[in-house]
Amino acid sequence: MTIEVSYHETVSKLQEFAQFARGPFDRPEWYALLEQGGFHPVIVVGRSSHRIAALPLMAAGHGLTSLAYWFSFAWRPLGRDDELVDEILTAMAKDLRSHASAITLAPLPDEDGSASRLEQAFRKADWAVFREQPDENHVLHVDGRSFAEYWASRPGPMRTTLKRKAKKVDVEILTHFDERAWAEYRIVYRNSWKPAEERADILEAFARMEGGAGRIRLGIARAEGVPVAAQFWTVENGTAYIHKLAHTEAAKPLSAGTTLSAALFEHAIDIDGVELIDFGTGSDAYKRDWVETVRPRFRLECYDWRKPRGWMRIAKAMARRLARGNSRR
Predict the structure, then answer these.
(1) What are the residues facing 79 on neighbouring strands?
(2) Residue 27 to residues 34, 101, 187, Cα–Cα distance (Å)
(3) Which residues of 145-154 are buried (b: 16+ CB within 10 A; e: fewer)?
(4) What does the longest C-alpha to C-alpha distance in the chain come to?
(5) Hey, how many other C-beta atoms are within 10 angstroms of the C-beta on 221?
(6) Which of 114, 62, 125 has the alpha carbon at shortest distance from 299?
(7) In terms of DSSP bridges, do strands 128-141 and 276-281 run parallel, antiparallel, or are they unpaired?
(8) CA 159, 165, 167, 171: dihedral to nearest 10 degrees?
(9) In terms of Cα–Cα distance, which of 286, 282, 285, 266 is closest to 274?
(10) For the chain: N or C, fewer Cβ within 10 A?
C-alpha cells in the first residue's frame, strides 16, 4: 500500500476530517480557534488509496506536541479505527523522524484505543516511546435512568444539602450564548477560588461557537439577583461535557454550586436525554460524588534515539520511570 505523508501549516486541511469528529475537541472549528489564538499548527496528513488520517500537532521547543489546550478533554488521531489507518499512522510516525527528534501526544484516551494505537505506530516506526498516565477523566453513564433515579443514588449529604439549600438561589439555564449571562459567568469566576483564566479569549470564542450551534448549556445561579455560581456545559451526540464551573467564595454557605450542578444534571438527563456526562480531566475529589466511572488519560513521549538531542530526553524519561517504580515498592 502506497502512503503519502504531507505537512500543513494551517488547520484548513482538517475540513475533510470533520466526519471523524467524536466530540468538541476533534472538530476543525476547534482547531481553527487555536490557530486564531496564536498557536502554530503542524498538521500531518497520511493518505492511501483507501484511507486518510491526520495528526493535528504544533511546534513545542525542539519538537512537536499535540495541538491542544489545557482544557481539552482529549486529543486523538483523526480518521477511521481500522488496520488500514493503523498502517498510515505507522508511516506517518516513520516520516516524522525527519521533522522532529521529540513528539509528545496528550491527553490521550484509550477507551477508544487511541493511546494504544499511537503507541504501537510509533514503536513500529522505531521511536523510543514512554507511556504515562498523568491525568484521569470522570464520566457518568446514565444507563437509561431518569434524573430522580440517578439522584436517589447520590451520597446522602449531597441530597440533604440540595433539599435544605435549593430554595436559597434562583437558577437559569440558557441554551444559547447570552452576553449578560457570560458577563455574570466572568464575575463569578473572578470571585471564585479558581486562578485567573489564562486565555479567556479562547474560552469565550469556544462558548460563542457552541452557542451558535445550539450546543451550549450556560447555567447561572443568583442569590437576591446577584450571580453566585456559574457553569458552562455543552451537549452533542448524546454526551454532555462539563467545561467550567465556579462559585463565589462569599456565597459558599449557600451551596449554590451544588444546586446549579443538580439543575444542569437534571436538564442534561431529562430534557437533553444524554447517555453520558463527561466531567473532563482532573482528580478533584468532588467529581466522584457526581459521576461513577474514572477513565485514564495518557501521555506518550516519543524520542528519536538516532539523534543526539534525543539521548538526554530518553535518559530523563528512563530515570522518571525508574523513580516511579522505586516509589511503588
Answers:
(1) 53
(2) 11, 28, 29
(3) eebeebbeee
(4) 67
(5) 31
(6) 114
(7) antiparallel
(8) -80
(9) 266
(10) C
The answer to whether 62 touches 101, Cβ cutoff 8 Å, is yes
| Per-residue pLDDT reduced to its tens digit, 226-266 | 999 999 999 999 999 999 999 999 888 999 999 999 999 99
Residue 245: its H or E element: strand 239-247
Amino acid at 230: A
Global pTM reads: 0.93
H-type alpha helices, the chain: 28-36, 83-96, 114-124, 147-152, 156-165, 179-190, 200-212, 256-266, 287-290, 308-327
Phi, psi for residue 213 in degrees, rounded to 5: -90, 0
Is the Cα torsion angle 186, 191, 193, 194 positive or negative in sign?
Answer: positive
Q: How far apart are CA 69 and CA 48, in angstroms?
A: 30
* The three cell numbers locating residue 293: 466511572
Give the separation between CA 263 and CA 218, rounded to whole angstroms.
11
Beta bridge partners of 63: 60
Of all residues in the chain, what percent are helix, strand and coil, respectively (each to 5)? 40, 30, 30
Q: Would you call 289 helix, strand, or coil by DSSP?
A: helix
What single-letter amino acid sits at 219?
G
Residues 6+ away with beta carbon under 8 Å from 4: 46, 47, 48
Q: How far apart are CA 49 and CA 53, in angstroms?
A: 12
pLDDT tens for each residue of 273-327 = 999 999 999 988 889 999 999 999 999 999 998 876 665 666 666 666 665 655 4
Q: What is the CA radius of gyration of the chain?
A: 22
Cα–Cα distance for residue pair 301/273, rounded to 1 Å: 38
Q: What is the pLDDT of residues 164-187, one digit of tens each?
A: 999 999 999 999 999 999 999 999
Rounded Cα–Cα distance for residues 11 and 16 (Å): 11
Rounded to an integer, what distance in angstroms lies between the CA atom of residue 103 and that of residue 109? 17
Angle between helices 256-266 and 156-165 (to 10 degrees): 100
